[in-house]
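Summary for the lay section of the report: proteins are chains of building blocks that fold into shapes. Here we show the chain for SAGA-associated factor 29 homolog isoform X1 and then a coded description of the shape we predicted for it.
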Amino acid sequence: MSSTDIAEMLEKSKELDRLRKEQEKVLLEINTMHNKLQSTPEVVEKPGDNSLSKLKMLYTQAKELSESEMSISNQLLGQLDVLIPAGGAGQQRRRIEGNEQKKKRMKGDSDIPRLSPSMRNQQEFFASLKGEQVAARVAQEDGEKDEWVIVKVTHYDKETKEFEVVDEEPGEDEEGGAQRKYKLPWSHIIPFPKISDLATTQEFPPGKQVLAVYPGTTALYKATVVQARKRKTDDYTLEFDDDEEDGSLPQRLVPFNQVVALPDGHRQ
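The coded shape description reads as follows.
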């Protein structure tokens, strides 16, 4: 095996690594789009919405990356077939097949749990929320109202699929004003829009009902968008339900990164 052959194979390996990293990014974007469409399926009916076009573009990109990965993998396999001495692969296979003790210790492929790329990326996304502030529903399932507050994610357990979060606002009912801690399923968590990722930030048109942080508090309530924003970084002008003053609902400004989609079946 010449040094040129080795160098060429190393370059192909680096390209494979790059392609796989690109695929992970694309799959994460696809998963984000899936979550958006699942929570607000009606968005595709809005004039000017490009959610489905963007999803198609992401799937096309994922397909092209996958085909490139397969092409380079086949090239590497071809090079290895040429470089491996004749009979080498067969001898190695016979040695493994003859080792009965090792076969007993090995677990069959069918017994090994495997995550699909979308599930794996979803798990990685949930784990990446550690240290982030998110909206969380902390009321009991059978409660009369849904109580949503700002909490900080301290841990995501991939086995139980539960978030461990802390309400950093000292509880009035807690002894010594201690911070309240919760274990919540992913369905009780809504990540806030990221200021650093405006491209994927969901836009809420006038008349749309949302869940938003009430100014000066760490609690989220149902509100209605009053007017369109000129830029993605602009605040939303909202009217909160049950916020009546002098017979009318005051209009309040709320930062865009404290406004999320209203969950289905929200009770207030």
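Put simply, here is one thing we learned. The first strand starts at residue 133 and ends at 137.
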